[in-house]
C-alpha cells in the first residue's frame, strides 16, 4: 500500500449474529479478535446509530422512540466523504434504509432489491416470459424453471424475482444480501480511498437458508417480545422451540460460508475489513426469544474482528460498538473533533466501563401488545428503560423488567456504576415522528417480524 494513500476500509455488520455462534462457525476469519465487545443496544437502529456516530443511542436520539437517523452530529460516511473518500453502502435490513436516513454521507446506498434491479440484464423478465410463452399452466412454470437454471442469467436472483412477482402472500422474504453483494462487487471499480458499509441478514428471522443447509423446516416467526408469547398467533416457541434453535444454527453456518467467499473479495479490495454484529439473539434463554426486549448478554455480547495486513491474535479489552467510529477515522488518518464515547480499538482505556441500553418498546412492539389486549401495567413494565454495564475485568451486569436488582457477578456496586454512566449522558430529547412508512419498506419489515 502507498504510504501516502489513505487506506480503503470495509465495515461489515453481520446482523443478529450471536457471539457463541460466531465462535463456532467463523474460526476461519483472520485478524484481531476482540473477545469482550458489546453492543450499545439489543437491536439494529440504535446499534448502527452508535457505529455511525461513536455515541450512545440516547445521546444522538436514535432509538426505539425515534427511528430516524437525523441527529445533528455528522455520520461516519459524511466525515469520510468530506475527506475525499468514496463511500458506498449496502443494507439488507429495511430498518437501515434511506427512508430512515441511514444513507447519509454515502455516494451510493443499495439494497438487495435495488441490486436485482441494477443487475436486471441478468434476471429473467418474468412478465415478458409469461406474455411470450407458448406454454401455459404447470408446463409454463416448468419451462421458466429450466430457463432459470440453463439460461444466460443469474439463477438465484431470477428465481427470487419470479417468486416476488407471482406470490400474493408473505412467503417471499428478503434475501440476506451476501450473494447479491458478491455479484455487485464484481462489477464495481472502487476509487481510492474507499469506504464500504455492508449489513447482511442471513442470521436474522425468518431463519431461512438453502435446502442443503437447513436440517429443519424454516419455522414461523416467533411472535414474542422477550418472554411474552402471543397465544393468539401461530407460534413455534410453544410447539417446537428446538426447531427454532436448529434453524438459527443452520443460518449461522450458511452465513459463515457465504461470508468466507465475500471476505475473500473484500480483503483483495480493501486494506482493512472490520467484521462485527450489531446485536445477538435470544433462543429461549431467560424464557425469551428474538431481540425486541432486554439487554441480556446473549443480545449485547457481539463478535468483532479487525482484519488487515499483520493483524492477528486476540484482545480481552472490553470494547463497544461506539469504538468503531473512532477506529475507522484513525485508520483513515482523520482527526476527529466530534464529541464521542468511542476510543481507538487498538488503544482502548482498560479502566473504562461500557454502557448498554434498552430504550423501550418499538412502535410495532407496542402495537402488537395493544392488539393482544395486554394490560397497561404489563405494557408499561416492558416499555421501561433498562441498562447494563460491562467492566474492565470482563464482567457484565444488567437490569431486568423486574428491576429488583442487577444480575451479574464480579461487579462492585453495579447499580451505582450504571447510574453514574447514565447521569453522564447528554441526552438528545426527541419527539416520535409519525411519518407514514412506505408500503415497500413496511412489507419488508413485516417479513422480518417487525411492523
UniProtKB/TrEMBL annotation:
It comes from the Archaea. Pfam families: Sulfatase. Gene3D superfamilies: Alkaline Phosphatase, subunit A. InterPro entries: Alkaline_phosphatase_core_sf, GAG_Ulvan_Degrading_Sulfatases, Sulfatase_N. Residues 30-334 form the Sulfatase N-terminal domain. PANTHER family: SULFATASE (PTHR43751), SULFATASE N-TERMINAL DOMAIN-CONTAINING PROTEIN (PTHR43751:SF3). This is Sulfatase N-terminal domain-containing protein. It comes from Halocalculus aciditolerans.
Amino acid at each position: 500500500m502507498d504510504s501516502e494513500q489513505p487506506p480503503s476500509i470495509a465495515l461489515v455488520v453481520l446482523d443478529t449474529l450471536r457471539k457463541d455462534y460466531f465462535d463456532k462457525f467463523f474460526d476461519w476469519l483472520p485478524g484481531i479478535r476482540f473477545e469482550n465487545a458489546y453492543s450499545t443496544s439489543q437491536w439494529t437502529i440504535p446499534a448502527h446509530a452508535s457505529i455511525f456516530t461513536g455515541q450512545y443511542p440516547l445521546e444522538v436520539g436514535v432509538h426505539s422512540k425515534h427511528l430516524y437517523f437525523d441527529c445533528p452530529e455528522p455520520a461516519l460516511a459524511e466525515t469520510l466523504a468530506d475527506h475525499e473518500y468514496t463511500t458506498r453502502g449496502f443494507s439488507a435490513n429495511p430498518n437501515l434504509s434511506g427512508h430512515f436516513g441511514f444513507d447519509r454521507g454515502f455516494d451510493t446506498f443499495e439494497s438487495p432489491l435495488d441490486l436485482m434491479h441494477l443487475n436486471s440484464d441478468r434476471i429473467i423478465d418474468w412478465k415478458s416470459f409469461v406474455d411470450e410463452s407458448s406454454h401455459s399452466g404447470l408446463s409454463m412454470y416448468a419451462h421458466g424453471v429450466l430457463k432459470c437454471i440453463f439460461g444466460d442469467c443469474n439463477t438465484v436472483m431470477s428465481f427470487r424475482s419470479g417468486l416476488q412477482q407471482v406470490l400474493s402472500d408473505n412467503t417471499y422474504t428478503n434475501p440476506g444480501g451476501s450473494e447479491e453483494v458478491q455479484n455487485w462487487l464484481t462489477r464495481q471499480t472502487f476509487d481510492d480511498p474507499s469506504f464500504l458499509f455492508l449489513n447482511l441478514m442471513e442470521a436474522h428471522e425468518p431463519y431461512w437458508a438453502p435446502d442443503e443447509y437447513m436440517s429443519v423446516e424454516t419455522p414461523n416467526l416467533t411472535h414474542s417480545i422477550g418472554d411474552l408469547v402471543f397465544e393468539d398467533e401461530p407460534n413455534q416457541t410453544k410447539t417446537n422451540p428446538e426447531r427454532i434453535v436448529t434453524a438459527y444454527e443452520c443460518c449461522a453456518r450458511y452465513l459463515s460460508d457465504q461470508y468466507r467467499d465475500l471476505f475473500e473479495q473484500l480483503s483483495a479490495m480493501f486494506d482493512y475489513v472490520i467484521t462485527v454484529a450489531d446485536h445477538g439473539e435470544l433462543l429461549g434463554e431467560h424464557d425469551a426469544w428474538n431481540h425486541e426486549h432486554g439487554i441480556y448478554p446473549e443480545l449485547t455480547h457481539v463478535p468483532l474482528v479487525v482484519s488487515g495486513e499483520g493483524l492477528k491474535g486476540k484482545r480481552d479489552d472490553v470494547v463497544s460498538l461506539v469504538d468503531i467510529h473512532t477506529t475507522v477515522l484513525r485508520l483513515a488518518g482523520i482527526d476527529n473533533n466530534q464529541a464521542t464515547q468511542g476510543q481507538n480499538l487498538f488503544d482502548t482505556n482498560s479502566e473504562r466501563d461500557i454502557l448498554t441500553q434498552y430504550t423501550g418498546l418499538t412502535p410495532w412492539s407496542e402495537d402488537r401488545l395493544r392488539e393482544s389486549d395486554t394490560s397497561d401495567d404489563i405494557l408499561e413494565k416492558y416499555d421501561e428503560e433498562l441498562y447494563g454495564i460491562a467492566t474492565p475485568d470482563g464482567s457484565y451486569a444488567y437490569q431486568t423488567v423486574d428491576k429488583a436488582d442487577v444480575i451479574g457477578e464480579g461487579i462492585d456496586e453495579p447499580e451505582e456504576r450504571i447510574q453514574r454512566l447514565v447521569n453522564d449522558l447528554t441526552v438528545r430529547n426527541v419527539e416520535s415522528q409519525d411519518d407514514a412508512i412506505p408500503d415497500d419498506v413496511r412489507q419488508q419489515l413485516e417479513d422480518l417480524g417487525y411492523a
